[in-house]
TrEMBL record:
Identification of the protein by name: Sigma-70 family RNA polymerase sigma factor
GO BP annotations listed: DNA-templated transcription initiation
Keyword rRNA-binding set for record: no
Residue ranges of domain RNA polymerase sigma-70 region in the record: 2-63
Length: 161
């Protein structure tokens, strides 16, 4: 947990956009890793295995009715933005605008950006991790970069830079 805990929380947060839920997922992931250690086949690194479990667990949560209900409840309950966990996730305040734009990307684009740039996985590792063709990974990465470029250019005009 000490070695991969922050990575797992970051990835979970990038999917769920909820700090508490990301921390809960992290605990669940490490419990599952412990319980299923005998199923680890050393076909990839331990980190890749842990991240794969994290991604799958997040996707399960996103599909669940209780998560959808929670998201709607939070949306209707909170009118102000809470103090930014994005700063914790991606670094200092200078990166806040970029991190907000990344979190606005569709999940499929956001996951490859996070895994490629922040977790520093190779395209091949991401392909294996998500069980997706490498060309699909390249396409999602390309589209994510284009979407970020467009939103960042728009943001700079908005701020007069």
């Amino acid at each position: 947990m000490n070695e991969y805990g922050n990575d797992v929380i970051r990835i979970a947060f990038s999917y769920l956009k909820n700090k508490q839920l990301a921390e809960d997922i992290a605990q669940d992931v490490f419990l599952r890793c412990y319980e299923n250690m005998d199923t680890f086949r050393n076909e990839s690194s331990y980190k890749t295995w842990v991240i794969r479990i994290t991604v799958n667990r997040c996707k399960d949560v996103l599909k669940s009715w209780s998560y959808k209900n929670l998201a709607i409840t939070e949306f209707l309950t909170y009118k102000q933005v809470q103090p930014s966990f994005e700063n914790e996730l991606f670094g200092d305040e200078e990166n806040e605008f970029l991190s907000r734009q990344i979190l606005k990307l569709p999940v499929k684009q956001r996951e490859v950006i996070i895994l490629f740039y922040y977790q520093e996985f190779s395209l091949e590792e991401i392909s294996h991790l998500l069980n997706i063709n490498i060309n699909t990974i390249k396409t999602r990465l390309h589209r994510a970069r284009n979407n970020l470029r467009t939103s960042l250019e728009g943001g700079m005009r908005h701020y007069g830079k």
